[in-house]
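# nightly structure sweep
# worker-07 picked up a monomer target from the shared queue
# config: single-sequence mode, recycle default, output format = structure tokens
# input follows
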Amino acid sequence: MAKGHKDKVAVITGAAGGIGQAFAKRLAEDGVHIAVVDLGDAGDTVKMVQAAGRDAITVKCDVSSEDSVAAMAKAVNAKFSHVDIVVNCAGIFPQKNFPDMSFADWRKVLSINLDGTFLVTSAFVAGMRAHKWGRVVNMASSTLGSVVTGFAHYVASKGGVVGFTRALATDLAGDGITVNAIAPGLTRSPGTVVRAPRPSFKTMDEEFDAVAQLQAIKRVEVPEDLVGAVSFLTSDDSAFITGQTLNVDGGRVRT
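# output follows
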């Protein structure tokens, strides 16, 4: 177990299921109390946190809305008084070919994936600065280093997340706050199994298997493959690491 987690408080967005839920479960097992933030029903995640002996609160929040994020932060602070860790996991992953992409399509992805990362992080940075300790972990994507089509808005949003991570790491380092990103590959989760496969594939299972063959580790990625990274990056063990993007994708992308 990484050091420095006991009785810390984490806000994890997109934690009702999938990768965010796996993060919540692991950090709770590490000793962290969890604020589960999502638009969906997060009851199962709360049960996982409580089963690990940690306190939990669930707050419905649209991370792209300044008012919704402010209300969420108020509810979280009323429960826990302060927040030590922010994990920005909420995001959407739609596919649309660029000639068919409207500005509304573009703005929807950017508003959730990039604006949401800014809004949620900014809501809790003041408290971290006051305690001179904090961890921010953002979600990037291995698509930044891959050849994919139909995701111009998504890849742009994740490129923005990487840039935000790098810049914020410099801004906050003097306050004992680190800011890093995790870049997963195509991960089998509730959000990906239900979407339509790319045109060259008949099913998502076929796409999952094809992507796995592009990796050094030739199996499909699952949320549990990412939890060790978030545990490390939110711990005292990572105190001298900031501004980095860690590829956790089975060895597909090399940087």
